UniProtKB/TrEMBL annotation:
Keyword DNA-binding: yes
Stored Pfam families: FCD, GntR
Originating organism: Saccharopolyspora ipomoeae
Residue span(s) of domain HTH gntR-type: 19-91
InterPro entries per record: GntR_C, TF_FadR/GntR_C, Tscrpt_reg_HTH_GntR, WH-like_DNA-bd_sf, WH_DNA-bd_sf
CDD domains, per the entry: WHTH_GntR
The entry's keywords: DNA-binding, Transcription, Transcription regulation
Name of this chain's protein: FCD domain-containing protein
Claim: Transcription regulation is one of the keywords in the record: yes
Amino acid sequence: MSGFEADAGDADWRPVARTRTYELVIDRVEEQIVTGALKVGDRLPAERDLAKMLGVSRAAVREAFRALEAQGVLRMGVGTGPDSGTTVAALPSQALTRLLRLHVALANFPVADVVRARLMLERESARHAAARARPDDLARLAELLDEMDSPDCDRARFNDLDTEFHVRIAEAGGNRLVADMTIAIRESMRRPLLAAFDALGDDWDPIADELRADHRAIYQALRDGDAEAAEERTAAHIRAFYRHGWAQDDL
């Protein structure tokens, strides 16, 4: 009996069809994860063994493993010992965020759809952050506000700070999935937002002042622990800017 049976003996490795073989190998690995037959830390069979089980080439297994490693699903170790071989990884938040960000960026969703998604997620984050934000969370938010107030803060820097401000609130809310989705959507809009900032021309300064005031109001609600105010101010802030930048009146 191989070491694999001891690690993931419940996995069902039936042969796959031979069309688009490496993708079907990926499907079979994902199937085992979704059904719970494979869990974080479980070791997959060696390429040769798994190829035989599935009735495919080693090259197809290798390509599937590499694709899943790139997604953060698998960890491939070399040599011998407990860290060698191919194991199921704990998908880091950064990997999920990257995939979501790319999906949002490439799918060409209408701006209004993206904004509505932001509204749903960030209202939830702000409400929870009002109850759960720690002193260090609030301290970092205050630092970001001060940096945005700096006369040396140009539009690109403002955009980065603005992004981090919203991301920090999402993280302070305590729901990891909501935070990751918020981060993905907000960061997918980083470049379009900067383009919108640039397009404002001479109108930028008064609008930037509005954004700073909105951020301060949201921050104050978080400091006060006022969940309702934090939610309402966040929603109003998001709607107001998109009306400026994209003339969206139906949000």
